[in-house]
Amino acid sequence: MKKAIAVLSGGLDCTVASSVYAKDYDIHAITFNYGQKAFKQELKASKEICKKMGFDHSVIDLPWLAKISTSTLNTSEDIPEVDADDLDDFEKSKETASSVWVPARNTVFTSIAASYAESIGAEIIIVGWDREEATTFPDNSKEYLESFNELFEVGSPIDIEIKAPAIDLDKDEIVKLGADVSAPMELSYSCYKGKDKHCGVCESCMRRKRGFEKAGIKDLTEYEK
Predict the structure, then answer these.
(1) What is the rounded distance in angstroms from the CA atom of residue 132 to the CA atom of residue 191?
(2) How far, rounded to the nearest angstrom, does the alpha carbon of residue 81 sit from its chain's CA centroid?
(3) pTM of the model
(4) Which range of residues forms the domain containing residue 155?
């Protein structure tokens, strides 16, 4: 079977993205520890997803990224909480995105994934980048995806392509896609705060909740609020 590398945080988007290719590829998922508050829960979710889907799984520690990051995901500063009305307010969402931004995170993750892909002869790297988050996170955008693939064309001795099946989708469409491909969305973890239950008020939780609501699909996630 063809081989693939999946960048898997345990979140909703990457869980759905990986599931899209689960039947056609032998997938090796990698989860990164960059000192984020949610790492314990992300690791738990990733392990459960990989077990259910039959993926190989590796964890990569990036202590240097934890050290240089000033993101609220890494530091003792409070992670912003948002209201539902804030999700479509560009200025407020931009402010929240700036607070949780980790320096070059997706660039680092994807480059390491490329090393894994070259080492095992994987044809694709699967990521959960999507249109909704690309509004305020440039490293989720279609332009970023296309640029990275162009880089691989000139910089890798083998054919590797990044696959982002949610690149043109919003959260509700991702949830619908997840249902279509039987993704274990109930095992995924999206909260920035890293609590046992999703906090329900950080931007990631709010987008997750709204996605299921708009999709009309039952949300099995446990939220504190």
Answers:
(1) 17
(2) 20
(3) 0.97
(4) 2-215
